[in-house]
Design a protein that fits this description.
The chain has 318 residues and is α+β, with helices and mostly antiparallel strands. Helices cover 12% and strands 20% of the residues. The strands form 6 sheets. The protein has a 4-stranded mixed sheet. Strand 8 and strand 9 form a beta hairpin.
Amino acid sequence: MSDEVKSCCTPSAKRNTKLKDVSMPIAETIRAASTDGMIGLPGGRFFMGTDYELGFPADGEGPVRSVKLSPFSIDITPVTNTQFAEFIKDTKYVTEAERYNWSFVFWAHIPQARFDQLVADTVAQAPWWCKVYGATWNSPEGPGSHIEGRQDYPVVHVAYTDAAAFAAWAGKQLPTEAEWEYAARGGLEQKLFPWGDELEPNGHHLCNVWQGQFPSEDTADDGYAGACPVQAFPPNGYGLYSTVGNVWEWTQDWFGVAHPKHETLNPRGPKYGTDKVTKGGSFLCHASYCNRYRVAARTKNTPDSSTSNIGFRCVLRS
């Protein structure tokens, strides 16, 4: 099949091979920016990246480098289904998944009685990812599914282009990778997670990731098999929820693995690229194959790709 896996975490759709640079907002702002539901952060110096020995050097996680950021505000949670529904109602925007009539869904979340009817193909390198006809932000598992009861869940099946359109409508922007990581760390320096270095301190689950044998058995010991409400687990030191686990989050930056060794101010990644950086990991992350639920971890995907485990949050710069 033609679908290319950029990583085991999120498959790439590559729907539009002539996609233009969408680093800037692609829709007119139709509402005044508001900091409601956001937290203001002072910026300043922090140490970005990691030299963690169990990380993924090929992902460009390191080296650790000094970064300075200007003040900015960031959404307390990923954008929810309720918020995205308001955007759709106001703009009549059509997402990439809706335009192409398919998106990627994790195999275990597809109704087994309709599996053959809904699934067009699977990803060769990661067969747990299925190309599902009619899977969209408001039908997350395909036709017949809905978001009723999931209004406070993160919106998914949104491509980078869709996230950028939402941000522009809201008078905001998508975060740079540096802004995202600074915010996710919650004020802690060089810790693996927003709360420290142990994934489950004292046996407590603090984020939504996979438990069990991936990809066949999710024991859901953390309470969730799949995505969960954006405030299901405690916030980090800055008051931000769901910064690791649950769903990956789009950032503004093009993906690259070469980082300046000198201190940088408000870095924005490469000027050009084919993939955007996503951060935070998702409910599918497991130590046996993908421990990218760490704050310094990163992966990538094409800007037109959508899956059932990628969402986003926005920033507002001073």
